[in-house]
Each structure stands twice: as C-alpha cells, then as structure tokens.
Design a protein that fits this description.
Number of domains: 1
CATH topology: Rossmann fold
Structural class: alpha/beta
CATH class: Alpha Beta
Shape: globular
Number of helices: 6
Distance between the termini: 17 Å
CATH architecture: 3-Layer(aba) Sandwich
Order of helices and strands: HEHEHEHEHEH
Strand order of the largest sheet: 2-1-3-4-5
Helix content: 40-55%
C-alpha cells in the first residue's frame, strides 16, 4: 500500500463561493475514500497555505488541489502559475474546478500545467457525480506523488 493510501488523502479546496464549498464537502462525505479537506477562500490565502506561511506554518501539503478560477485577490490562473513555477509545489496535482467553460480559460489552464479541467455542473446530482469521478480517478486509480 502506498504512503498516500495508508493515510488520509489531503485535499486543498481553493474556493470562495460558500455554496460551492458546501456542495464539494457534501459530495466528498459520500466518498468511500479516507480524505481530509482543507478550504481556503482566495488565491493569496491558497499560496500562504501552500508555502506554509502564517497562519499555516504547520499545515501539511495537500496530495491534491481543487482550484476554482474566479477567486478574489489572486485568480486561479495566477495561483496555478505560482504552484507550477515552485519546485516545492509543482508535483502536486491541480484539478481546476471552475464554473467557466470558456475555451480561453481551459486552454490557459492547460498551458499553465493544470492536471485536468472540470466545469462545475449547475445541477446537484451532476455536481456530485463529477466529484465522484474526480475521487475515483485521483484517489483510486492514480498514484499520487505524496506531498511531504
């Protein structure tokens, strides 16, 4: 059993919409995987968390990041670029989970090395199914590098 399978999978959700945070947490509660989710509400806070700056000095690095694009302070594209340009963070898979289905947003996310791009469905059942698919793929089939 790999290190990431022996302990809970650590997920960082970067999302400013309280409704989407709630939906994502609820969808993960239905999961068969043992996961711990941390939530930050803007791009600057996400980078502080990932860089282990105050108040996150003891926060463990996540195994997987779920990143919205439309964030205050620093948008998701800026956060993604910072993550992928940082040798200590670039190995962490980033799933862009956005309400945007703009071809420009999708292309730009992949150009900045997003690991995948998922457009948030508006319907709860479809949203829950999308989260379940993310879980199945990233937590069951993929070998995560382990953050620490």
């Amino acid at each position: 059993m790999s290190e990431t399978k022996a302990r809970p999978i650590r997920i960082l959700l970067v999302e400013d919409d309280p409704g989407d945070v709630r939906l994502t947490i609820e969808a993960f509660k239905k999961s068969r995987f043992n996961s711990l989710m941390s939530v930050v509400n803007d791009g600057a806070e996400a980078l502080r968390y990932l860089r282990r700056e105050r108040p996150y000095a003891t926060a463990p690095l996540p195994d997987l990041i779920l990143l919205d694009l439309n964030l205050p302070r620093l948008n998701g594209h800026e956060v993604l670029k910072e993550i992928k340009d940082d040798s200590r963070l670039k190995h962490i898979p980033v799933v862009v989970l956005s309400g945007s289905n703009s071809g420009e947003d999708i292309r730009r996310a992949y150009d900045t090395h997003a690991n995948c791009y998922v457009t948030k469905p508006a319907d709860w059942e479809l949203y829950s199914s999308a989260i379940g698919t993310i879980e199945d793929f990233w937590l069951d089939f993929v070998q995560l590098p382990g953050a620490d």
